Amino acid sequence: MKNPLIYFLFIFVVTLGTSCDDEPDVDDGGSNVEELPLINISNLILPEGNTATTTFRFKVSTSEASTKAVSVDYATEEKTAGIGIDFEEAIGTLTIPAGETEGFIEVSVVTDTLKEEDEEFEVKLSNPVNAQFLTSSGSGTIRNDDTFVFVPEDGYITPENYTGFNLVWGDEFDGNQLNPDDYTYEQGAGGWGNQESQIYTNRSENSYLSDGNLVIEAREENFNGSNYTSARIITQSKKIFAFGRIDIRAILPEGQGIWPALWMLGEDFGTIGWPACGELDIMELLGHEPGTVHGTAHWGPQGQSFSTFKGNEYSLNGGEKFSDEYHVFSLIWEPNSVRWLVDDVQYHSITTADVNGTPYPFNDEFFFIFNIAVGGQWPGYPDASTQFPQRMFIDYVRVFQEN
């Protein structure tokens, strides 16, 4: 080989190849990162609890025991849960002694009695010694187990008695759960005749008692194939009435596609159907018009698929909303006539003369329905502006009849 440059390159390549061949591989007993134990950290979902603190214990485990101590640094990070508000910050180093395969990282959760969404945080691992990561973060989900929702007491209120009337039934919602002798949960999806989007459930996430209120809560969540959940509570076959004064004190939800209602159907709905049974909408609100409520009566012949109706609306002044504070929605219900009131101001009425010869169903017994629908032909559907959850607070329902 007469050219010195070519000779030099030949020697360099041969030397480089020999050096590479001398490196130990995974199978020849040489030290290699792939032989290190694998570190894994668990995920936890636990109830928030009601004691001073609740402790989340995240298990950190290795795939096999090591002849050397394994250590890893850790630190908590906020997701939807906040440091110092929902959980206490935790920073440190976890050591798993030689010959052992697991250790624990403890994070204290701050408990309260406030109804909230489930919240999440993370425990992040870093700087492993004598091990490598299979997973380097664990999520902690704080499952809410409270029902208390702060509600201001501001707003209109009606008396507990009226001259010439007796209170024949009422509910102040001061207990821990609804009385099953008074109420039934209607459940299921299917649009409910109005192309609505929610599924109604009997879960505590969608209805509960809090601070003297019945709370109906509409949530955006996937549940049994529906994108929204809510509750629909009725008194059919349990608490039925004809005539008197009805007062319902409530704070209403708002938002595009939100449709709360306090209403009544004739008790013979199950035998003659709608609209022949009659419908009295004490209050309906379209969430994109949060300052206006509607009162409506529906009727029609048996077997007809649509109703004849008469309604009117009531609007608050000055941009006020029915979500701001309590208002009282009332019926003055007498033989052959019904009147609608908001905060004792009458805005709508119906008499036998309005049905134009069709059977007048409003002298018969009716039952209550309380619900929040999501979406539907009348209110439209939620959009990016709609915030969830949305709640309707019912402070009391009272039925008075003449002595």
User: Which segments are poorly predicted (pLDDT under 50) over 5 or more consecutive residues?
Assistant: 4-33
CATH topology of the largest domain: Jelly Rolls
- Relative helix content: under 10%
Helical stretch count? 2
Radius of gyration: 33 Å
Q: How many domains, in number, for the residues? A: 2
Which class do the helix and strand fractions yield?
mainly beta
Distance between the termini: 126 Å
The major β-sheet equals:
10 strands, mixed
- Quaternary state of the chains: single chain
Q: Which shape, going by the Cα principal axes?
A: elongated
Number of strands: 27
Could you explain the architecture of this structure?
It is a single chain. The protein has 403 residues and is mostly beta strands. The protein folds into 2 domains: 34-143, CalX-beta domain (Immunoglobulin-like), CATH 2.60.40.2030; 165-402, Jelly Rolls. 5% of the residues lie in helices and 45% in strands. It contains 2 helices and 27 strands. The protein has helices spanning 4-21, 269-272, and strands spanning 38-41, 44-47, 53-62, 70-78, 91-96, 102-110, 119-129, 132-133, 137-143, 165-171, 184-186, 198-200, 207-210, 213-223, 226-230, 232-234, 240-241, 244-251, 258-266, 279-284, 292-299, 308-315, 327-334, 337-342, 345-351, 366-374, 390-402. The strands form 4 sheets. Strands 10, 12, 13, 14, 15, 18, 23, 24, 25 and 27 form a 10-stranded mixed β-sheet that branches. Strands 11, 16, 17, 19, 20, 21, 22 and 26 form an 8-stranded antiparallel β-sheet that branches. The protein has a 5-stranded mixed β-sheet with strand order 2-9-7-4-5, with no helix packed on it. Strand 24 and strand 25 (345-351) form a beta hairpin. It starts with a helix and ends with a strand. Residues 4-33 have low confidence and may be disordered.
